[in-house]
Amino acid sequence: MNKTRLILKGTVKLDGSEDLYLIFLADENNTRQLTMTCDHHVNYELGLRLTLQPVVNRCLPEALVQMLRYASNDRYEVLFFGVHEGQYDCMLFDCDTLDTVALRASDGVLLSVVSGIPLYIDTELFKRQSTPVPEKGSMSIAMPANVASMKMLEAALQNAVDNENYELASQLRDEINRRNHKEEDKS
């Protein structure tokens, strides 16, 4: 599998949401980016590390990483390998034993930040899901609909209708219907 290394660029609160934040990840050349959602708790934990708060030296994740330092960071990878029901599929991969552990994507990002374990995405998935890094000062954010929550899709649909952007509204409606049909098929 070809992989692309991802670097955390930051997080931002999603307008109109009480508990949703966006995580921005870019390739090493900072030419394309990936956007995913996270909750308030992961955003808070990432914020502590991004602003280099001294308290993190005594937090549980850092303590566990310190205790397990004998296991080299070269041994592990955090890998995004697919998209399922609006979420990136993510795993912690042991390169020596080939063992894997499933993780929420946002927790995979946090683990990478805390431990220094490299964060990768399947290159083909990155090509499909990523967007060009916006120019400085740009106020818009592109995000594939297949990784937006139903709540986000419904809000975007209402916004598209309100702004009479019927082509976008149609695409959003199709994505909502596709997910609803998948849920009905599971029942």
Description of the structure:
- The chain has helices at 40-50, 60-67, 105-115, 123-129, 150-162, 166-186; strands at residues 3-13, 20-27, 32-39, 76-84, 87-94, 100-103, 119-122, 131-132.
- It is α+β, with helices and mostly antiparallel strands.
- Strands 6-5-4-7-1-2-3-8 form an eight-stranded mixed β-sheet.
- The radius of gyration is 18 Å and the shape is globular.
- The protein starts with a strand and ends with a helix.
- 21% of the residues are buried.
Give the topology:
Elements: E1 3-13, E2 20-27, E3 32-39, H1 40-50, H2 60-67, E4 76-84, E5 87-94, E6 100-103, H3 105-115, E7 119-122, H4 123-129, E8 131-132, H5 150-162, H6 166-186
Parallel strand pairs: 4-7
Antiparallel strand pairs: 1-2, 1-7, 2-3, 3-8, 4-5, 5-6
Give me the strand/helix succession. Answer: EEEHHEEEHEHEHH
Q: Please report which band the strand proportion falls in: under 5%, 5-15%, 15-25%, 25-35%, 35-45% or over 45%.
A: 25-35%
| Helix content bin | 25-40%
Distance between the termini: 34 Å
Number of strands: 8
- Main sheet specs: 8 strands, mixed
Question: What is the typical, i.e. mean, pLDDT?
Answer: 85
Give a brief description.
The chain is of the alpha+beta class and 187 residues long. It has six helices and eight strands.
Key structural traits:
about 190 residues, about 40% helix, globular
